[in-house]
Write a structure and sequence with these properties.
Blueprint lengths: L19 E6 L4 H12 L4 H14 L1 H9 L8 H28 L3 H5 L6 E6 L3 E6 L2 E6 L3 E7 L2 E6 L5 E4 L5 H11 L15 H32 L6 E7 L3 E7 L2 E6 L3 E6 L4 E7 L3 E8 L4 E7 L5 E7 L4 E8 L2 E9 L4 E8 L4 E7 L4 E2 L3 E3 L3 E7 L4 E7 L2 E7 L5 E6 L4 E7 L4 E6 L10 E6 L4 E7 L3 E8 L4 E7 L7 E8 L5 E9 L2 E7 L4 E6 L2 E6 L1
Antiparallel strand pairs: 1-2, 2-3, 3-4, 5-6, 6-7, 8-36, 9-10, 10-11, 11-12, 13-14, 14-15, 15-16, 17-18, 18-19, 19-20, 19-21, 22-23, 23-24, 24-25, 26-27, 27-28, 28-29, 30-31, 31-32, 32-33, 34-35, 35-36
């Protein structure tokens, strides 16, 4: 137990602070008492509550940003985000309380150092400061440096600017002295009526008001954001934005507002997407079969094949829109191209005149052909997972999908798909492969979309499409999948783009784009738009 103070003083209201010293003697339970007070006192600090309410905001900061900039219904809604905030806040508060309980049960080492049984603790009040005379040394505290001073039961919590707080016996801080100290420091410490019920009222009031403001702001934002999402739901559905005639269009590559369309007349049209005009035409010769862009070097790779069976890849510098080098692949037919910019490889499925089929590699740093990897015959489609650097090659004989290591060229797995593959796309964020092709029944039946889980290398889902469906593309950021089809139920076989959610596999929209012979579809992730190509035009689908 603490012994009573050895001196006391009752000041005159108009007096200045004379040197007064008050002393208490530590008892057997003083250390435990002050340790408990110190643990509980932290919950009275405004900074503790500020940190507590900031933790969920930090954890959910990315989700909050996505909510405010979201234009897609697939983005997490605000109500769910608000629930997550409350849950994380409750967890943080629970962990804080658990930490407090642990601290209450422990003896604070710093406190124990100056509260050994029988040792004295003194406070000397001077004109402009107080001195804490402890077993560990003397600490001089100017009155204007005191930030917190309030009672916790029979103890007092004192915090100096820039330091952690300490706990002392309450008898060392009588109200009579603190009334004058409050006037000297310009801050209010304690109530005049009871020395054991000192409150840090200003801090509590600030925290309470801040909490009310945060709750009101969150509630108001939830209402406003909810109204905005409701109003734009109808307008956020994918729709045809524009079309541009491009006779003989075959394949397309996209680069942040510019489209490169390869046509059957041996040219590549450079299209300004914002103005929907052709800026330039580049001649590559013969019939272009595939086109990919390297976003690092800004080089465009266009694969061409002629009737005699020779093929080549034209490397175009998109800064000058000129062919810089031509890579020859004699006595071969190039079916498709894919690129992994990080690895620095362009992959080409090549059928040779000797009836062998290979996966050829072109190095983007030197624009030279590397090693060939033998693959199954009738292998046409190729796509790359740019996150895992796995190359997927679709074969019709047998109907399968083979995964290759894009660096070593070694086959890693073969996945039966049960029918010819007409279109192939990879979601590098979810490691999912999408194929458009024939069902097991063979050509003539309605085609299907097969969703393949590459972790287990199995078909996770099969969804029906139209009888004619040729290509698929994905926009990972908006969680949207685009399938290019022809509606055989219409008199003029109108083309359409089926848009699905990759989160639910549900159809979001069917967008009619005109009549023609469908070729391919690609996505520009920078604007979240799909570009559908038929034999006479390029059509843009956007939200």
């Amino acid at each position: 137990m603490n012994q009573p103070p050895q001196s006391s003083w009752t000041p005159n209201a108009q007096a200045s602070v004379p040197p007064v010293e008050i002393t208490a003697i530590s008892g057997a339970d003083t250390t435990a008492q002050l340790s408990r007070a110190l643990a509980i006192a932290r919950w009275r600090s405004p900074s503790t509550w500020a940190i507590l309410f900031a933790i969920p905001l930090i954890v959910l900061s990315r989700s909050f940003i996505q909510v405010f900039i979201a234009t897609s219904s697939s983005t997490r809604n605000f109500a769910g985000l608000l629930i997550s905030y409350v849950v994380i806040l409750a967890i943080a508060a629970g962990l804080g309380l658990l930490f407090t309980v642990i601290q209450v049960l422990k003896r604070n080492k710093e406190t124990a150092a100056y509260t050994l049984p029988g040792t004295s603790i003194s406070v000397r009040y001077q004109q402009d400061s107080l001195e804490l005379i402890l077993a560990t040394g003397t600490v001089v505290v100017p009155y204007d440096q005191i930030r917190d001073l309030f009672a916790i039961g029979e103890s007092v919590f004192l915090r100096i600017k820039g330091e952690r707080g300490r706990a002392f016996p309450g008898v060392l801080f009588p109200v009579s002295v603190l009334e004058l100290v409050s006037r000297k420091s310009g801050r209010r410490f304690g109530d005049s009526g009871d020395a054991r019920k000192w409150k840090h009222r200003k801090g509590i009031a600030v925290v309470s008001i801040a909490v009310l403001i945060v709750i009101a702001a969150v509630a108001t934002t939830a209402i406003v954001v909810g109204q905005r999402k409701t109003e734009r739901t109808a307008s956020s559905l994918p729709a045809l934005r524009a079309s541009l005639p491009v006779p003989g269009a075959e394949r397309i590559a996209l680069n942040s507002g510019t489209a490169y369309v390869a046509s059957s007349d041996g040219t590549v049209s450079v299209i300004d997407v914002s103005a929907m005009t052709v800026k330039s035409v580049i001649h590559v010769g013969a019939d272009p079969r595939a086109v990919v862009l390297d976003p690092r070097t800004q080089n465009l790779y266009v694969a061409s094949s002629e009737m005699q069976g020779n093929s080549w890849i034209s490397v175009i510098d998109t800064k000058t829109n000129a062919v810089k080098v031509t890579i020859q692949l004699p006595s071969a037919f190039i079916a498709d191209l894919a690129i992994d910019p990080a690895v620095g490889n362009v992959y080409a499925t090549v059928a040779r005149h000797d009836h062998t089929t290979v996966l050829s590699t072109v190095r983007t740093d030197s624009n030279t052909v590397g090693a060939d990897v033998p693959i199954a015959s009738a292998s046409y489609q190729v796509a790359v997972n740019t996150a895992t650097h796995i190359v997927y090659v679709a074969s019709d004989s047998p109907a399968s999908l083979t995964a290759f290591d894009g660096v070593s060229g070694q086959a890693k797995a073969t996945i039966p798909v049960g029918g010819y593959v007409r279109g192939l796309a990879v979601d590098s964020e979810t490691n999912t492969v999408y194929t458009v092709g024939d069902p097991s029944g063979g050509p003539g039946d309605p085609r299907v979309l097969k969703i393949i889980d590459t972790a287990a290398n199995v078909i996770r889902q099969t969804l029906p499409l139209s009888v004619v469906a040729e290509a698929v593309a994905i926009d990972p950021a908006s969680r949207s999948l685009f399938v290019l089809e022809q509606d055989t139920g219409a008199v003029d076989w109108k083309e359409q783009v089926r848009v699905l959610s990759t989160e639910t596999d549900a159809v979001i929209a069917l967008v009619t784009i005109g009549s023609g012979t469908i070729r391919t579809i690609a996505v520009d992730p920078s604007v979240h738009s799909a570009f559908a190509v038929d034999s006479s035009r390029v059509s843009i689908i956007t939200r």
